[in-house]
Amino acid sequence: MKATVLHDIGDIRVVDVPDPVIAEPTDALVRIVVAAVCGSDLWSYRGLEKFQSGDRMGHEWIGIVEDVGSHVTEIKRGDLVVAPFAFSDGTCPACRDGVQTSCPAGGFWGGRNGGGQAEAIRVPFADATLVAVRADVDDALSRRLLPLTDVMATGHHATVLAGVTRGSTVVVIGDGAVGLCAVLAATRTGAERIVAIGRHPDRLRLARTFGATDVLYADEAETAATVVDWTGGGSAAVVECVGGQSALDLALTVARPGGTIGSVGVPNGVDHVDLYRLFRANVTLRAGVAPVRRYLDALITDVLAGVLDPSPIFTTEVPLGDVAHAYRAMDNRQAIKALIRPS
Fold this sequence. Notes:
It is a single chain. The protein is α/β, with parallel strands linked by helices. The protein folds into two domains: 2-150 and 291-341, Quinone Oxidoreductase, Chain A, domain 1 (Alpha-Beta Complex), CATH 3.90.180.10; 154-287, NAD(P)-binding Rossmann-like Domain (Rossmann fold, 3-Layer(aba) Sandwich), CATH 3.40.50. It is 30% helix and 27% strand. The chain has twelve helices and 18 strands. It has helices at residues 41-45, 93-96, 126-129, 139-145, 151-162, 177-189, 201-210, 223-230, 245-254, 275-281, 292-304, 323-331, and strands spanning 2-8, 11-16, 28-37, 55-56, 60-68, 80-83, 86-87, 107-108, 120-123, 131-132, 169-173, 193-198, 214-217, 235-240, 255-263, 284-287, 314-319, 337-341.
């Protein structure tokens, strides 16, 4: 079968690899219908995270089950399934506590595990990991479901960490796919005022579409002071979706005393945290990788009900053979997020 691998920095290739097979009785084999390129894929693509040449790529995908192991009872052949970006056994203390990304037996797609930017994939712990969609799924619905595998659930997780509630005010820092989905998540929660901060006019326009009541530019000197003024001393809820030092510093500046920052940006390039600022102002910093499986059922329900549609984050679509173009487009900020069709 065909699969995407990272050969070297900036060198993405589609190569022939062995077809996946059932290795454990809890496995499933899934034919991938649609996949995506994530902003976090760019860290290794740019050489900012360690990788081995030939590492499989892609952790956002949905597909059709083609075979299951003898111990799989909930997932059936022919099911269309949504996969979180991490697989987990569903039985350990971390899974029972809703932190499936910390499952000791689990792992993440890509690297030496199967990658989602491929024609097919083996899924460990299929019953605990996959969610079957009991509905007729066309291309449009596939596009709406695909962001739930990572960026929509991660944006939602950020709002949970920050304590966003109905009627509240929230500041969202970052206009990538996760930041935009955090705006959408805050809208879904019922936040009354949503201030989106980014760098790109087209993305901030989409933030408005997703429910942002105000937009500001991160590079403008007066942005932090404007937020503090608008919110009467800072926001009680701040969502940080970048992972860079300047974004975290901005989050600390615009958080009001007693407020909470929910940080889900992969912290590459963060050299320090102003602990004294947190201490002096009683600001809480909650950070972590999103346990997507914890949120999938509710998010899928809303997509199927027609009340949640994150699909506008996909601004380019390519066949699997052109996946290198998708990486270049995202790396050059010519696309917010790229959708991949294996066939």
